[in-house]
Write a structure and sequence with these properties.
Blueprint lengths: L7 H4 L4 H4 L1 H9 L5 E2 L14 H9 L14 H13 L10 E5 H11 L7 E6 L3 H9 L5 E6 L5 E2 L1 H7 L4 E7 L11 H13 L3 E5 L24 E6 L11 E7 L6 H12 L6 H12 L5 H21 L3 E2 L8 E2 L2 E2 L6 H12 L1 E2 L1 E2 L12 E4 L4 H18 L5
Parallel strand pairs: 1-13, 3-4, 3-6, 6-7, 7-8
Antiparallel strand pairs: 2-9, 4-5, 8-9, 10-12, 11-15, 14-15
């Protein structure tokens, strides 16, 4: 028999955050310690899922033993609708909510239901690689808009508008942003909404980190300021509620003119192919959104301290500069010395010093610039050790060559 050939579109999928891990595992096999600063998983470090979320699963064991509604239980969907209302979004009911196996599946299915081959969706650069990866799988050409590093990584609505063409179906906005940690201003978001409205396209608002704001910058849900523009908002319990392994995510639609009906039904049809949601997680989502929120303030304070350390240390290292992250738990420093590729930089760093980050090529960046993403979830001691090693690595391998 001949080798079985996979679909060509599947071979083009890339996910930088995961693609670097096998290299780190090789390094560990050689006996070297690796500091993992690549994946936004709080549970690897000193964080725990709030106990009432676990209790909700324990208390609903019997209800979790059979199939659930493929769109999510009424309890979980109502909890998301109530959450949207508390965030300032009016008019969302349980009928406007669908739950998923994490926010990632929500993004994938939402794109699958909208995009035909050859169409395009505006995505931020830099941005979360699941959007570019899924669009590549769907054979949809990239259509990227740059975030402005000199303006705190804010998007430019006028540049977004210039990128729109007859095959553009949506604008993706990731706020708070992964990988930069930027929090977008209400003025900026309103301008993007106006652009979407004038071109009759939908807004995808990935608002996964909406509770993880580290300064006084207010968070503005896009649906709360979109009076006549359709918005599909994505969220999950992974980050805000410290439960990434639970895989509890959702979308809700804000559809003031009733123009998302056929599209939303297409999403439902895809969801029905999976027969059921993951039943225990439905109760966990309901408990997370409706239950005590007391973990959030200490969580933000912990992240704030680690953000401050990260921001200070990165900017103290010769050859690096970093915009201060305002939300989430990522920093995206720029490399300011001659370099062939930041992928090569990151791979060499983990091999020589045992510090694993993610290369900027995996998230996007303006031509001629180089970056890497750092997760500042670990305790200060681990972060300090990592920054010492990064500084040593740069001095030994790049600055010494001046």
């Amino acid at each position: 028999m001949h080798m079985i050939r996979p679909a060509g579109r599947a071979m083009e999928i890339k996910h930088a955050t995961r693609d670097v891990v096998p290299i780190a595992k090789e390094v560990e096999k050689s006996g070297k310690k690796v500091l993992y600063l690549n994946i936004g998983d709080p549970m690897v470090y000193d964080y725990r899922t709030p106990e009432h979320i676990w209790k909700a699963i324990e208390d609903n064991k019997q209800k979790s033993e059979g199939y659930t509604d493929a769109l999510g239980t009424i309890g979980a969907r109502s909890a998301v609708a109530d959450y949207a209302k508390r965030m300032g979004v009016n008019g969302v009911t349980s009928d406007d909510v669908i739950t998923f196996v994490g926010g990632s599946e929500a993004i994938i299915v939402s794109l699958q239901a909208l995009m035909d081959r050859g169409e395009n969706c505006l995505i931020p650069n830099p941005g979360y690689s699941i959007f570019s990866g899924e669009l590549s799988f769907l054979e949809c050409p990239p259509n990227e808009y740059y975030l402005d590093e000199e303006n705190g990584w804010q998007p430019d609505a006028s540049q977004i508008e210039k990128q729109i063409n007859p095959k553009t179906k949506a604008i993706v906005v990731i706020n708070p942003n992964n990988p930069t940690g930027a929090v977008f201003s209400k003025t900026t978001l309103k301008r993007i909404i106006d652009v979407a409205g004038s071109h009759n396209i939908v807004v995808f608002a990935d608002e996964t980190y909406d509770q993880l704001l580290l300064d006084d910058d207010p968070f503005t849900p896009m649906a709360s300021i979109a009076n006549d523009v359709p918005v599909v908002s994505t969220g999950s319990i992974s980050k805000n509620y410290l439960a990434p392994g639970f895989r509890g995510g959702w979308i809700y639609r804000h559809d003031p003119q009733g123009i998302l009906g056929e599209y939303f039904e297409a999403i439902k049809k895809i969801c029905r192919l999976r027969l059921s949601t993951v039943a225990p997680v439905q109760f966990a989502m309901e408990a997370a959104l409706n239950g005590p929120q007391g973990h959030l303030a200490p969580l933000r304070e912990k992240l704030r301290r680690r953000r401050d350390l990260t921001f200070r240390r990165l900017n103290e290292i010769e050859g690096l500069s970093c915009v201060k992250p305002k939300g989430a738990f990522y920093a995206y420093p720029q490399i300011n010395f001659p370099l062939q590729s930041d992928r090569e930089f990151v791979i060499s760093l983990v091999r020589k010093k045992g510090v694993l980050c993610v290369y900027g090529e995996g998230f996007g960046q303006k031509p001629g610039t180089h970056h890497f993403r750092i997760v500042f979830l670990p305790p200060e001691q681990i972060l300090g050790e990592a920054f010492d090693k990064i500084e040593e690595f740069i001095k030994e391998n790049y600055l010494a060559k001046k």
